[in-house]
Design a protein that fits this description.
Elements lengths: L2 H12 L5 E5 L2 E5 L5 H10 L4 E10 L4 E9 L10 E9 L4 E3 L9 H11 L2 E3 L11 H4 L28
Length: about 170
């Protein structure tokens, strides 16, 4: 099965749900409204896309949105495993909330937690939405948003220091 066939299978499953399609090398992403993302996920799972490979986000402050993308594939169907299908949702940047898909794909659970702590996206219905990699005070600042300011503790002045060898 080629990527075209994977795309066709996903298009058939998502018929009437998606609002746009983007294609890249080895993947195809379908734009889905946030209020229909659970319906889209259930349709893809029923079509054989049995796990989430990744959940990622992109902060687009000029547009006032955060885009969340789930990349899904299949372990059980070797033909579907040849391509990756994305579900992309645009959320308002000032209150990014969407339903958790972890009840549909358990493999989304930890990845949703990462997007929560780094971008501030709230996944409603998530069983354990708390920081997983960062300490809570840093996670509250959502360090992968484009307006996060990194303060350097020390500026490197350059040069190489020679290590002294013991006598």
């Amino acid at each position: 099965m080629s990527l075209d066939a994977v795309r066709s299978r996903a298009e058939e499953a998502l018929r009437g749900v998606y609002t746009g399609v983007e294609e890249g090398k080895g993947f195809v992403a379908f734009r889905v409204p946030a209020e229909r993302v659970v319906e889209a996920a259930e349709a893809l799972k029923s079509a054989g896309f049995d796990h989430v490979k990744s959940v990622t986000a992109v902060d687009r402050p000029k547009e006032g949105v955060i885009e969340v993308t789930y990349h899904v594939s299949s372990y059980s169907d070797p033909e579907l495993a040849r391509g990756i299908v994305g579900i992309t949702v645009s959320l308002p940047r000032d209150n990014p909330r969407m339903p958790s898909l972890s009840r549909i794909w358990v493999s989304a659970e930890f990845q949703e937690r990462e997007v929560f702590e780094f971008f501030g996206v709230v996944f409603e219905g998530h069983p354990d939405l708390r920081p997983i990699l960062l300490i809570p005070p840093l996670a509250e600042k959502h360090p992968l948003r484009k307006d996060f300011i990194v303060k350097e503790e020390q500026v490197y002045k350059g040069g190489i220091t020679k290590l002294e060898q013991p006598p």
